[in-house]
Design brief:
Pfam families: TctB. InterPro entries: DUF1468. The protein is 73% helix and 0% strand.
Length: 158
């Protein structure tokens, strides 16, 4: 029951975040350079997030009605069971803080490699994954900078 409650709360929070993100995406200035504007990609991500949040909400409501009641869980045990989630939020906060100073390339690569080391159960392929992440960051840079005309923080190197 506790996982169903947690999923229900997460789904509601994600739907609220999606609403705020959509409001924020309407504030992106229109450049008029082409068929797609700078808010096109964020709106796609927001739509996917809303769809997945609604699926999580429906699934958690279904589980909430079907599962037997669970006993109370202490805060310490809840913290231990959600340690990776808390570390992920910390890494994301550090990424947002470092992004204006280090720039998109350095901050994004460091964030993705750090996230991989926290979340991956098998860290044997760290070099291959790091090369993939560098390529992904470069591709996203080209898409945002050249196609969508979204200017990313330059930082130290770029």
């Amino acid at each position: 029951m506790t996982s169903a409650k947690r999923d229900l709360l997460n789904a509601i929070l994600l739907l609220g975040f999606s609403g705020l993100a959509y409001i924020g995406s309407t504030q992106i200035p229109i450049q008029g350079f082409g068929k797609t504007e700078a808010n096109f990609f964020p709106n796609i991500i927001i739509a996917v997030l809303v769809f997945l949040s609604v699926c999580l909400l429906a699934h958690s409501i279904y589980r909430f009605t079907k599962e037997p009641k669970a006993k109370n869980v202490s805060i310490r045990n809840a913290f231990r069971s959600n340690k990776k989630v808390i570390i992920t939020f910390g890494l994301f906060a550090a990424y947002v803080f470092i992004l204006p100073y280090a720039g998109y390339f350095i901050a994004s690569i460091l964030f993705l490699i750090s996230l991989y080391t926290v979340l991956a159960p098998n860290k044997n392929k760290i070099i291959l994954v790091s090369l993939f992440m560098i390529g992904l960051v470069f591709i996203l840079y080209v898409v945002f900078q050249q196609v969508l005309s979204v200017f990313l923080p330059p930082g130290i190197l770029f």
